[in-house]
């Protein structure tokens, strides 16, 4: 298989590009048709949609006006944009700018949908955006954990289990000690411990990494649920940690839209931004990162120039565990405030998808997480708005898009070459 | 080996039971001997309840048979019947995952395939009215297989054509299937009349699996599961196609040079695997609940992974592992209601069993066994590579 990929002549790449171009073109036209047909049916010409851009509770700061748009016109406009871009895409393609065009189409589609949902009503757009960031936080932590492990060549499918254990530990230790900071540290340590188990199984015992990860996931789910129903139900005082309170950053939090989204959160927000920057800088601009990537791409070559492959992998997997543990603590110490059985609900797997979607980079992973977070947030809001459209189909979109990306139907993502392969020093 | 793995898992499970009782530490300080004694007592009570909940208690059997009362005799077999009932979908999902493993594919999507299979099977169950059962039941089962097969075909096709890794695609399809169910359970004509909660119409009784013995819930779905295991075993180890499956799983490069088509084998393996998972869906809908809700899966798809791992992807082992997991599931509820030890203990034990089975080196180190063994697990895909 690998040999075939390496030897792929330019012709095949071309054919792939043409297939991509056609696929995208047809997809855009379909989206235009969906918008023009389904979203205009029950709209009257005089209806307007109002989007609130100022958070409800926020009294201070700048006054941000709401956006009021004529519903029907905006929906048709969005359909026209999608159709025009689809036609151009089919005829001649956009070359390297496909990602921007895809972004424009998706935004037009989503905005048309929101306009339709809010026709004759007002909708808190800022609320949706705030919730988007909030929902994407644990997913991003998961994606970052994955980036750290997989750039060094170890597949980490146990992110889900690490998030769950982090959430549990954060709640219990945070309550028992009365300090949420100690809870956070404990969660990070437990994440590291699980990652250590994964590392030993995968690197030392050379167990299949996906199996090892699956075992850790099942184990974490079982143990946390067991202890939660055996101990936490009768000792509620062990499941009442104080949450981290939000710390609005003085000037930045007053920026319209972006301020309430990114700069009014709690410690986890800033920790995450710092981690994204740190990992991005570390991976791509430092000697440390070059070595990590060398281990993930070509461990033999790395070994030859004197990099300790085994040590690098252990260290990165454990660092990944720390990040996932912190992300898990967000569920209890940053968001809901108490542990509930299986509360991570597959966010670890979504984080994995976000990592792949984002091309194994921290920033890409964050952007992909925002898309998943947006879907999550929309789900929560749509149920309040009582929208008649089957919102399930909208919710499927991020998963389907991930499949499409992984299948290389749009753009390409390239994984670390030695990802998932145990290193044999021999 | 599996016996040692189960034994080790039960021992660690016991430790978890004792340590998770916060009063244990206080009692340990007051009177160590007494505390240890009562802890042991608690463990034995919990495992005892698990055992009798899964297999029935000897005294009940003896009483029932000496009384000669048929109703009481049937009653005595209820735990055993519940074990078979829980084992049925596990056999199917276990076979589904194992079939993928044998072909070098990790089908994490048995859960989603089960959902779609159950969705199709339920539809056939309530839609085709007026058929005799010997036509309706196979039809509904066939629909279930079809639904699961469709959901398995997609990742197979994508893997074969584009190299998209089946683990990611099947995880995504799990969520897609969940949303699909969530939608269809609200569609008029599928949703039960007069209900606002997500629940399907009741399937007609001509589409139900007949029960094995009147008064017990165990049904012919279990027998179908055994038959499927025999069939899969024959297919994998006695048929040409099955040989190709295993060859591709064992060494794709060699298989290609031998003239086998990796693409078509991959597609077929994922489709069949999905179909088997779809049958698991029918075994729940047509055998137990008789209508579709979100709760149809109950994690059978993920347990299927555990079972396939534990059985080393061998059909005979899958039946045994499914019976074990089914017994744990069936015994867990009585254990919780009698002794207060939560159901989730079973999941801990399951994870430990898989870990010990999948890492035989660990068990060998604990018990100082020297004989090296192969697990049959080394063959399937590593990482995300196509």
Structure description:
The complex is a heterodimer of chains A (426) and B (386). By secondary structure, chain A is an all-alpha fold. Chain A contains 16 helices and three strands. Chain A has helices at 2-6, 10-38, 71-91, 98-117, 125-151, 159-177, 180-204, 209-232, 258-262, 267-285, 287-297, 299-304, 309-336, 347-357, 362-385, 391-406, and strands spanning 48-52, 67-70, 122-124. Chain A has a three-stranded mixed β-sheet with strand order 2-1-3. The radius of gyration of chain A is 23 Å and the shape is globular. Chain A starts with a helix and ends in a 20-residue tail after the last helix. Helix content of chain B is 73%, strand content 0%. Chain B has 386 residues and is mainly α. Residues 375-380 of chain B have low confidence and may be disordered. Chain B has helices at residues 2-19, 23-30, 32-55, 58-67, 70-76, 78-102, 110-127, 133-162, 166-184, 220-238, 240-250, 252-257, 262-289, 300-310, 315-339, 345-358, 360-367. The radius of gyration of chain B is 22 Å and the shape is globular.
């Amino acid at each position: 298989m690998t040999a075939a990929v390496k030897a792929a002549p330019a012709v095949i790449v071309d054919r792939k590009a043409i297939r991509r171009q056609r696929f995208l073109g047809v997809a855009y036209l379909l989206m235009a048709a969906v918008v023009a047909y389904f979203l205009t049916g029950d709209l009257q010409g005089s209806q307007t949609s109002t989007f609130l851009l100022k958070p409800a509770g926020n009294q201070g700061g700048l006054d941000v006006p709401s956006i009021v748009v004529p519903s029907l016109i905006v929906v048709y406009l969005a359909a026209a944009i999608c159709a025009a871009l689809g036609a151009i895409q089919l005829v001649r393609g956009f070359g390297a700018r496909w990602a921007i065009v895809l972004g424009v189409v998706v935004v037009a589609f989503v905005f048309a949908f929101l306009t339709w949902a809010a026709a004759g009503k007002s909708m808190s757009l800022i609320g949706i955006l705030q919730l988007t960031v909030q929902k994407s936080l644990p997913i991003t932590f998961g994606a970052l954990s994955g980036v750290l492990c997989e750039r060094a060549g170890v597949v980490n499918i146990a992110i889900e289990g690490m998030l769950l254990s982090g959430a549990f530990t954060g709640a219990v230790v945070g309550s028992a000690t009365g300090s949420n900071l100690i809870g956070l540290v404990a969660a990070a340590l437990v994440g590291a411990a699980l990652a250590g188990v994964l590392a030993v199984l995968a690197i030392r015992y050379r167990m299949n990494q996906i199996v090892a990860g699956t075992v850790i996931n099942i184990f974490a789910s079982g143990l946390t649920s067991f202890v939660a129903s055996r101990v936490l139900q009768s000792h509620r005082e062990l499941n009442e940690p104080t949450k981290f309170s939000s710390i609005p950053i003085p000037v930045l939090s007053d920026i319209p839209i972006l301020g309430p989204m990114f700069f009014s959160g709690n410690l986890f927000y800033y920790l995450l931004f710092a981690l994204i920057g740190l990992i991005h800088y570390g991976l791509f601009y430092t000697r440390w990162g070059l070595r990590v990537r060398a281990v993930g791409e070509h461990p033999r070559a790395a070994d030859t120039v004197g990099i300790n492959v085994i040590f690098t992998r252990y260290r990165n997997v454990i660092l990944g565990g720390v990040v996932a543990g912190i992300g898990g603590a967000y569920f209890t110490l940053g968001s809901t405030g108490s542990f509930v059985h299986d509360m991570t609900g597959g966010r670890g797997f979504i984080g994995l998808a976000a990592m792949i979607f984002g091309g194994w980079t921290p920033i890409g992973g964050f952007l992909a997480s925002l898309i998943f977070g947006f879907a999550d947030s929309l789900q929560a809001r749509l149920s309040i708005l009582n929208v008649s459209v089957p919102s399930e189909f909208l919710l499927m979109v991020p998963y389907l898009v991930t499949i499409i990306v992984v299948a290389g139907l749009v753009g390409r993502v390239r994984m670390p070459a030695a990802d998932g392969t145990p290193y044999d020093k021999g | 080996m599996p016996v040692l793995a189960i034994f080790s898992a039960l021992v660690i499970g016991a430790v978890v039971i004792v340590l998770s009782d916060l009063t244990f530490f206080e009692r340990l300080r007051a009177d160590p001997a007494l505390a240890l004694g009562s802890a042991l007592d608690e463990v034995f009570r919990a495992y005892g309840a698990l055992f009798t909940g899964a297999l029935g208690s000897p005294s009940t059997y003896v009483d029932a048979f000496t009384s000669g009362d048929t109703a009481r005799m049937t009653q005595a077999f209820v735990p055993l019947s519940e074990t078979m009932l829980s084992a049925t979908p596990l056999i199917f999902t276990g076979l589904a995952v194992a079939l993928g493993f044998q072909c070098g594919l990790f089908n994490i999507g048995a859960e989603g395939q089960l959902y779609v299979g159950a969705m199709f099977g339920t539809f056939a169950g309530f839609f085709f009215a007026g058929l005799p059962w010997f036509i309706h039941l196979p039809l509904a089962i066939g629909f279930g297989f079809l639904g699961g097969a469709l959901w398995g075909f997609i990742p197979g096709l994508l893997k074969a054509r584009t190299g998209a890794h089946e683990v990611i695609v099947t995880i995504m399809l799990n969520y897609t299937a969940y949303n699909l169910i969530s939608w269809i359970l609200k569609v008029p004509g599928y949703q039960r009349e007069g209900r606002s909660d997500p629940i399907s119409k009741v399937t007609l009784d001509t589409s139900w699996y007949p029960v094995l013995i009147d008064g017990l819930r165990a049904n012919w779905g279990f027998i179908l599961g055994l038959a499927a295991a025999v069939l899969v075993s024959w297919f994998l180890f006695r048929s040409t196609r099955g040989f190709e499956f295993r060859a591709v799983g064992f060494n794709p490069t060699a298989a290609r040079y031998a003239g086998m088509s990796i693409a078509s084998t991959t597609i077929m393996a994922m489709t069949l695997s999905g179909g088997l998972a779809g049958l698991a869906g029918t075994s729940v809908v047509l055998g137990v609940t008789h209508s579709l809700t979100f709760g149809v899966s109950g994690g059978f798809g993920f347990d299927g992974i555990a079972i396939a791992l534990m059985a080393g992807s061998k059909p005979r082992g899958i039946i045994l592992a499914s019976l074990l997991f089914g017994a744990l599931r069936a015994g867990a509820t009585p254990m919780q209601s009698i002794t207060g030890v939560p159901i989730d203990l079973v999941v801990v034990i399951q994870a430990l069993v898989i870990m010990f089975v999948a890492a035989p080196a660990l068990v060998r180190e604990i018990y100082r066994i020297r004989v090296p063994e192969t697990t049959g697990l080394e063959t399937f895909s590593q990482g995300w590579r196509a």
